[in-house]
Design a protein that fits this description.
Number of helices: 12
Largest sheet: 3 strands, antiparallel
Strand content: under 5%
Radius of gyration: 21 Å
Structural class: mainly alpha
Helix content: 55-70%
Number of strands: 3
Order of helices and strands: EEEHHHHHHHHHHHH
Shape: globular
Strand order of the largest sheet: 1-2-3
């Protein structure tokens, strides 16, 4: 692959001089530190502007949602990696983040993508949302694929995070046709499958992130940012109250040898 060589390299994100640090055109010490929380800083980094108070509440809610969800595969990967390489905390966090894909956390991306494909950002629905939902569900069923953002192995019939996220979005002006289409897709998927398929947290986050207009290719990154915080928490707990070595030893003992079933 060949690319055109740029005459000059430039970034709008950050720049430093001997006496100044600038982020998105704002002075870090005087305009950001003490003024922005972590979620607002992430919003500034991604959009180039500070969120409105309503945007701040909603954006912080969607990223906080994905920080922690127990001893998930990503948390296990981080703990086990730390057990083998305690000198490299960053490697343990990276190991956990590598598992954020179409099954865990990364399905935010898939949910947003299907919504954008139905209604490009900045446009209004061209036909009833129920009709769009029928086509979306039929397409995924024809390909024998699950609809991103629907279903949960534990939280049934409702993922408790979803109603609260949708409430926050609605109260702060971040709930229009993308949230409504996601709800229509859920109703149609449940109708044709006869199964309980709640909108899970990643489906809700994907829909609300679409309301903001974030490109679908970056929306998985919201979960990556959030889960990194949670993984650092898991490693701290691993230091204070380790379980990784016992998990390894128990799996070695129980999984080794002839099958018992």
């Amino acid at each position: 692959m060949t690319t055109k060589i740029k005459k000059s390299l430039h970034t709008e994100l950050g720049h430093s001089t001997p006496d100044r640090i600038t982020v998105r055109g704002r002075d870090l010490p005087s305009e950001i530190l003490g003024h922005l929380n972590l979620g607002d800083m992430a919003f500034l980094e991604l959009t180039g502007r500070i969120p409105t108070p309503q945007e701040s509440i909603t954006f912080n809610a969607i990223v906080v949602t994905l920080v922690e969800h127990g001893v998930t595969p990503s948390a296990l990967a981080a703990r086990l990696t730390y057990a083998g390489a305690p000198e490299a905390l960053q490697a343990a966090v990276a190991a956990g983040l590598c598992g954020l894909g179409t099954v865990f956390v990364g399905s935010t991306e898939g949910a947003a993508k299907l919504l954008y494909e139905a209604i490009p950002f900045g446009e209004k629905p061209s036909r009833p949302l129920a009709d769009m939902a029928k086509d979306i569900v039929a397409d995924f069923r024809a390909r024998k694929q699950i609809v991103p953002g629907l279903g949960h192995p534990l939280h049934k019939p409702i993922d408790p995070r979803t109603p609260r996220l949708f409430q926050i979005a609605a109260e702060n002006g971040q709930s229009t046709h993308y949230v409504a289409l996601m709800q229509a897709v859920q109703e149609e998927a449940e109708r044709v499958s006869g199964k309980s398929l709640p909108i899970n947290a990643t489906g809700a986050v994907g829909a609300i992130a679409a309301e903001f207009g974030f490109p679908w290719k970056i929306i998985r990154g919201l979960g990556v940012m959030a889960r990194a915080i949670g993984l650092v928490g898991h490693i701290l707990e691993e230091i204070d109250d380790p379980m990784a070595i016992e998990i390894w030893q128990r799996v070695e003992k129980e999984a080794g040898g002839p099958r018992q079933d």
